[in-house]
Amino acid sequence: MPCNSSWRGSSQPVGRDGPREATAAAGRLDGERRAFASSAVPRLASGVTTNPPRVSASELLASLRWRYATKRFDPVKKIPDETWKALEEALILSPSSYGLQPWKFLVVRDLGVREKLQAHAWGQTQVTECSHFVVFAVRRDLGAEHVDHYLDRIVEVRKVSRETLTGFRKLLVTSLEQAAAKGRLNEWQTHQVYIALGQFMASAALLGVDTCPMEGLAPERFDEVLALAGTGYRTVVACAAGYRGADDKYSRYEKVRFAAKDVIVHV
Ligand SMILES: Cc1cc2nc3c(=O)[nH]c(=O)nc-3n(C[C@H](O)[C@H](O)[C@H](O)COP(=O)(O)O)c2cc1C
Question: Tell me, which fold does domain 75-249 have in CATH?
Fold first, then answer.
């Protein structure tokens, strides 16, 4: 396919991850990188390098085709604790720009709270019928305080000294300040929250758990019900998780997706 630039944006997005050195500064040890690069990765005759798959391609695609935005959940079926723990871990493991993790995931089990939320979500039944209801909130006006919290965690996990992170801190704080000056800070961080949503849904599908992503809600009202005022966090989107009801006709609908030629561009 010819390289058609008309559909490309020309402006450089704010908040793209910085140079390679920045990642190194984040405490990723050179040795760790070398070990990864030289680990026992099988090489195919064609020269293509591959890692052993975690699930087969057909298992992955079967899960993704099985997933659909569930409208009616079986209110009796609950996600087992072990499965839910894995899904919470999938949320925690979500990638984010610079690794800043500008989010909170509010897992709402209380039915009374859910009923209040439902009233601000177009009355959608998923809110109360699902097993676990997750509200994805973004940290607004991200700044130096959050950066320091993140750097403290790098020090704790990677056992590096705080001094080695001085340059990385400057890079992060400057990036956030620049995004704020352009009025794009909160939008940038909100994008990260959607990555977590996608990872959550795909992970759930692999575990046989149904989900319904939900933007059909009033974020400000959700913030009120969840008492988010003063926390710095705001509702972005939600996701119901559980098991599809036998009566959900949407489970039988064909998936409507554009053909590969319309959306995949090989350059
Ligand atoms: C960010 C986002 C918000 C959505 N909000 C809602 C919602 O509020 N209620 C709903 O029933 N479906 C919602 N959907 C589901 C979409 O309508 C659905 O994913 C889309 O039609 C494709 O269908 P499929 O997910 O079943 O393949 C949302 C999907 C996304 C990704």
Answer: NADH Oxidase (3.40.109)
| Average pLDDT, rounded, for the chain | 87
**In the structure encoding, which two tokens stand for residue 245, read together?**
């009801």
61/97 Cα distance (integer angstroms): 27
pLDDT band at 49 (very low <50, low <70, confident <90, very high): confident
Domain boundaries, the chain: 75-249
Pocket test for ligand 1, best of 214, 249, 256, 257 (most atoms within 8 A of CB): 214
> For ligand 1, which residues put their CB under 6 angstroms from it?
68-69, 71, 124, 212-216, 237, 255
The pLDDT of residue 70: 98
- Return the pLDDT at 47: 67
Coil, strand or helix at 116: helix
Q: Find out whether 223 and 130 touch, Cβ atoms under 8 Å.
A: no
**What is the reported pTM?**
0.85
Taking CA atoms only, the protein residue closest to ligand 1 atom 22 is: 69
How far is residue 55 from each of residues 66, 91, 93, 201, 264, measured CA to CA in Å? 15, 19, 18, 16, 23
